[in-house]
Amino acid sequence: MAIASVQLLGESPSPYVNRVQIALNLKSIEFEFIQENPYDKSERLLKVNPVQKKIPVLIHDGKPICESLIIVEYIDDAWNNGPPILPSDPHDRALARFWAAYIDNKWFPLYRELRAASTEEARKELIERIFEGLVLLEEAFVKCSKGKPFFGGDNIGYLDIALGCYMGWVKATEVSIGVKFLDEFKTPGLAEWADKFCSLNDFKEVVPETQKLVEIYKMFQGRGKPASG
Amino acid sequence: MASEDVKILGGWPSPYVMRPRIALNIKSVNYEFLQEQFGSKSDLLLKSNPVYKKIPVMIHGEKPICESLIIVQYIDEVWDSGHSILPSDPYDRAVAKFWATYIDDKWFPGLRAISRAEGEDAKKEAAEEVIAGLVLLEDAFIKCSKGKSFFGGEKIGYLDIALGCFLASLTVTEKMGNIKLLDENKTPNLFKWAEKFSSDAAVKDVMPETGKLMDFAKVLIAKSKAS
C-alpha cells in the first residue's frame, strides 16, 4: 500500500494542528491525517518528534517537520501553488512573525492559566490581562491589515492562521465563563476580523464546533462528563 | 540597494544582541550601535519595542524590528550581499528554525539555571541537563553540517548564530561553576565548531571577551544578592 507523501500527525481540537491543516488546504495539498492523542503518545509520534514529543508533526516524503508555525512556513516555502501565506515585504514578514510569537508565548497561555485558575481573584486578573493583550492585537490588526479584511490583506495569511486557530478555544472559553472577549466596542477591528475568519470554510472545515470544545474545556476543569469520541 | 540607515539598540554583554550584529557583519552592512545603559531603558527603546521593552531592536529607516531571530531573518531577506544566512532548501530551513527554537526555549534557560542552582546536587543536575542538550545539538550539527565546518555548511548560518551567540556565556558558566560543559570527548564536533565560530570574521569583534563578561556577571550576581 502506498504511503501518502504528506502526512499530518495530530488531532482536531489542537489549534496548532488546525494551523497546519488550514495551510495545507490553502495550497490544495492532499495529505493523510493520522490521529495522535497527545495524552497517550504513540511510538510513531515519539520517533518523529523525539525532542518535543508534541503534535503537530508534518511528514513530507518521509522527513518530519515539527512546531506548527515552522510547519506553516515550510508549507509556504515548499509549495508554489496557491496564494502566498507569509507577506512578501520583509518588514511585514517580521511584523507577522513578531505578533505570532507574542500570541503563542504571551497571550494564549493566559487562556490556559484561566482554565486552571482556582480563585475568582486569579480569574479576574487573567481576564484583565487577556483584554490588555487584545488591545495590542487590535493595534497590530490595524497596522497589518491596512484597511483590508484580514491581517494578510484581501486573503488570509500567516498571522490570520496563527491567531485565527485559537478562535475555537476563545469561543469555548467565552461560553464556559460568560465573558465576551471579542467585543465590537473594545476591539472593533478584531471583532469583525474574528467573525469573518470563523465564517470561512477554511476555518469551519477544520476547527471543531464550539460545543465540542466546551465539553473538552469542562473535562479539563474537572467538571462535567468527558467528551466522547 | 536597500537603504543603510541601520541602528541596533543593545548592549555588548547580551547574546541576543550579538545575533543581528553578526548577521549585519555577514552582509557587510554598516550600522550604528546604540548601547543601552544597563539598568535603565531609553525612550527610544520604549518607543521602538513597547510590547517587550527589550534589546535587541533594529531600526531600519524609521521602522523597528524586534526579537533577535526575527531580526536575523529580516536582515537575510533584505540584503543579498555576503552569503545567505538561512539555508536555501525549505526542509533545511525548517530544521534550522526548529533547533533555534529549542535553543531559546529549552537549552539556554537550562544554562542560566546552572548559576541559579543552590547546592552542589542542584548544580550537577542542571549541568547534566545542559550537557544532554549539547549531545542533541551535536547530533543536529552532524546532520545539518553535512561534513562541513558549520551548521550552515561552508559558512556560518542561522543556526550557527542562534547557538554561537551563547558561547561566551557558556565559557563564563564553566569557569565560575568550575564545571566542564562543552567536552571534546562527549561532543567533539561541537567542540571544534565552537573554536571556528568564535574566530570567524563576522563574529570575533562582537563576541565579548570572557574576562570582561565574567566581571559583568559577577556585578549582576552581586546586585541580585543585594536586592
Automatic annotation (TrEMBL), chain A:
The protein's annotated catalytic reaction(s) are: RX + glutathione = an S-substituted glutathione + a halide anion + H(+)
Classify the source by domain of life. Answer: Eukaryota
User: The GST N-terminal domain covers which part of the protein?
Assistant: 4-83
Q: Which UniProt keywords apply?
A: Cytoplasm, Detoxification, Transferase
Q: Name one GO cellular component term.
A: cytosol
Pfam families with a match to the protein in the record: GST_C_2 (PF13410), GST_N (PF02798)
Tell where it localizes: Cytoplasm, Cytosol
- Asked if Glycosyltransferase is a keyword of the record, the answer is no
Q: Which residues form the GST C-terminal domain?
A: 89-220
Report the GO molecular function annotations.
glutathione transferase activity
Q: Which PANTHER family match?
A: GLUTATHIONE S-TRANSFERASE U17, GLUTATHIONE S-TRANSFERASE, GST, SUPERFAMILY, GST DOMAIN CONTAINING
Name this polypeptide is given:
Glutathione S-transferase
Organism expressing this protein natively: Forsythia ovata
TrEMBL record, chain B:
Describe the reaction catalysed, as an equation: RX + glutathione = an S-substituted glutathione + a halide anion + H(+)
> Pfam families from the entry?
GST_C, GST_N
The EC code for this enzyme is: 2.5.1.18
One GO BP annotation is: toxin catabolic process
Task: Kindly indicate whether the keyword Ligase belongs to this entry.
Answer: no
Top-rank EC class of the record's enzyme: transferase
The GST N-terminal domain is annotated at 4-83
**Family of the protein in this entry:** Belongs to the GST superfamily. Tau family.
Q: Which organism is it from?
A: Forsythia ovata
Q: Does the keyword Transferase apply?
A: yes
Question: For the GST C-terminal domain, which residue ranges apply?
Answer: 89-221
Record GO terms (molecular function): glutathione transferase activity
| Key words, A-Z | Detoxification, Transferase
Protein known as: glutathione transferase
